Amino acid sequence: LLPLLLLLLPAAHGGVQHVGYKPFLTKTPVLEGLTTGSTFVLEQPRCVFDKYSNADIWLVVALENTADTFNNSVAPGTAESAFQNFPHSVPAYMTLNATLANYPCPKPAGDITVLRVGSETSCIRDDARPTCNGPLPGPGPYQVKFLALNGSEPVAETGWSLPIMLRTAKSPNSISTTDGGHSAGMIALTSILSILFAILLAGLVAMLVFWGSDSCGGSSTFSKPEAVTVRRYNTHHVYDQPAARL
Q: Coil, helix or strand for 27?
């Protein structure tokens, strides 16, 4: 009887309509932080659930390997769909509750049409906020879909998105050691030569300064002229007479 009950379960809920739409990362405007280490940005599901004017539209976030195990009958705001229990004890969580008023069709001019998944940090460990749009716990890959509920009954859903990977920090071993075609050895050699040149230049300047100060502070010594004795002769007397000082 179990297979029969599984077949009758959708009928008991009135069936879930599959709309021809899959969530995707926004393309316009071009965003620098389209994916980060804990968030990603989706395009809003405009003109997708127009037939369900009274429905609440939820975003379901799952890991790629647990998306198929999510049960649409799980109610939002419960432990079975709480962000705080993902991914340890629940395969997916439900967040970003909205109505058609939040997704008007057609889009008014100037409207922002994106959703950032993972942008709330204040409710990460707040069990009273099970629908928290908290930072994603790992790099993924993740898959998401939109689910429309009429009260507690699922009435329509989109397909699952393509897998979404978040950014991860690079390992130091993966960082390139080249810069503009120059190897790390060439960069190191250039640095060493630059330092040696600076030392040589400093030594040359110091030598020039020393030589300049030495030449300016030196003095010349002159000898005092000595008296020269000139001996004069005449026919009668020979006598000595001091010569004039030069």
A: coil
CA dist., res. 145 & res. 133, Å (int): 15
| Interacting residues of 20 by C-beta distance below 8 A, sequence separation 6+ | 159
pTM metric for this prediction: 0.65
φ, ψ of residue 92 to 5 degrees: the values are -160, 155
- 98 CB-contact burial (10 Å; exposed 0-12 / middle 13-18 / buried 19+): middle
Domain ranges within the chain, ordered by starting residue: 19-163
Whether residue 10 is preceded by a cis peptide bond, meaning omega within 30 degrees of 0, is no
- Residue 69's φ and ψ, nearest 5 degrees, are -90, -5
Q: What is the pLDDT of residues 206-219, one digit of tens each?
A: 888 777 766 655 55
Q: pLDDT tens digit string along 122-158?
A: 999 999 999 999 999 999 999 999 999 999 899 999 9
What is the average pLDDT across 103-107? 89
Question: Do 135 and 124 contact (CB within 8 A), yes or no?
Answer: yes
Contacts of 159 (CB under 8 A, 6+ apart): 18, 20, 21, 22, 145
Give 203's pLDDT tier (boundaries 50, 70, 90).
confident
Terminal C-alpha separation, the chain: 146
Q: How many CB atoms lie within 10 A of CB 103?
A: 20
Residue with tokens 């997708």: 48
